[in-house]
Amino acid sequence: NDNKLLLITSANGQLDVFDTRNWKRMHSWKAHNQVTAAAFHPTEPIIATAGYDRSLKLWAMESTPRILAQESLDETAATLQFDKSGKRLFITRNVDKSLWSVEVKGRISEK
User: Fold this and answer.
1) Mean per-residue pLDDT, 62-81
2) What's the CA gap between 11 and 70, in Å, rounded?
3) Which of 81, 84, 89 is nearest to 105 (CA)?
4) pTM, rounded to two decimals
5) 76/54 Cα distance (integer angstroms)
6) Strands (E), 1-111
């Protein structure tokens, strides 16, 4: 992402992506029953989201967002952050704040 996009999440599971150059809403969709964390991929048009339902999803940002991958988590995620390459996604748990790391290759692989 080129820092021109803003991602807004809501308690009802809605995600909105805005272009900050003109404040136009580019995408809006329901991603989870409740979104707990979200992150832009650093180089690809992909967004990672986590929900209160303990799911982790990777979304392709196309004309209509679509799920690239979906996995179940043991706990609810509190934060998501890609590394600079976008090959790893770091997740902190909501309960004990422990850190997970997953590999991203068009799908999610735990490591």
Assistant:
1) 84
2) 20
3) 89
4) 0.82
5) 5
6) 5-9, 14-19, 24-30, 35-40, 46-51, 55-60, 66-72, 77-82, 88-93, 99-104, 108-110
Does position 24 have pLDDT exceeding 70, yes or no? Answer: yes
32: Cβ contacts below 8 Å, ≥ 6 apart:
13, 49, 50, 51, 52, 53, 55, 57
Residue pointed to by tokens 């272009």:
19
* pLDDT tens digit sequence for 56-71: 999 988 777 888 888 8
d(CA 9, CA 12): 8
Q: Are 67 and 59 in contact (CB under 8 A)?
A: yes
Distance separating alpha carbons of residues 21 and 27, to the nearest angstrom: 15
Closest CA to 88 of 74, 76, 105, 73: 105
Here the tokens at position 6 are 């803003």
Contact 93, 76 (CB under 8 A): yes
